[in-house]
Amino acid sequence: MTPKNTICLWFNKDAESAANFYAATFPDSKLINIFYAPSDFPGGKKGDALTVEFTVFGITCIGLNGGPAFKQTEAFSFQIATDNQEETDRYWNAIVDNGGKESDCGWCKDRWGISWQITPRTLTEALSAGGAEVKRAFDAMMTMKKINVAVIDVARRG
């Protein structure tokens, strides 16, 4: 059954390789289906993969191989909550070490230009705490690329 709400991500022509990477990297993620174009289309030919249905952490997505007309921006990102440094490192490194790029404050981009926020729960909790704790955690986060859980925990305690 098709869900009522599906995230559609525009790719140049690599939706299938992106879906396979996400399925191999994140739990509860898989490639579900590939729709091959019945005729030529802008950016592709008959028989090319036009759309790829997949999940990322159980969220249904469609990858559209729409050609080079549109690029990904930080206006859309997946935010992945992590429980510890090991999990944070695993996802961050998988993205960055596979042709991705680091950014600031827990953000990185995969090689297809999709933005990811790899966010330890301790940071989210600190940012919800209010008062001096939120300022200390926020100030610590602002100095980081990949989030360092131990440094955030120290900042939370003051």
Describe this structure in words.
The chain has 158 residues and is of the alpha/beta class. The protein has two domains: 1-68, 2,3-Dihydroxybiphenyl 1,2-Dioxygenase, domain 1 (Roll); 72-158, 2,3-Dihydroxybiphenyl 1,2-Dioxygenase, domain 1. The protein is 33% helix and 28% strand. It has a four-stranded mixed β-sheet with strand order 1-4-3-2. A hairpin with a 5-residue loop joins strand 7 and strand 8. The protein is elongated, with a radius of gyration of 18 Å. The model has no long low-confidence stretch (mean pLDDT 96).
In brief, what are we looking at here?
The chain has 158 residues and is an alpha/beta fold.
Query: What's the rounded overall pLDDT mean?
Result: 96
CATH C-level name of the largest domain? Alpha Beta
Question: Architecture of the largest domain, CATH level 2?
Answer: Roll
Number of helices: 5
The largest β sheet comes out as: 4 strands, mixed
Count of distinct strands: 8
Rg measurement, Å: 18 Å
Output the CATH topology of the largest domain: 2,3-Dihydroxybiphenyl 1,2-Dioxygenase, domain 1
Helix content: 25-40%
What is the fourth-level CATH superfamily of the largest domain? 2,3-Dihydroxybiphenyl 1,2-Dioxygenase, domain 1
Lateral strand order in the biggest sheet: 1-4-3-2
The CA-CA distance between the termini, in Å, is 50 Å
Q: Helix and strand succession? A: EHEEEEHEEEHHH
In percent, how much strand structure appears in the residues?
25-35%
Structural class: alpha/beta
> What is the approximate shape?
elongated
List low-confidence stretches. Answer: none
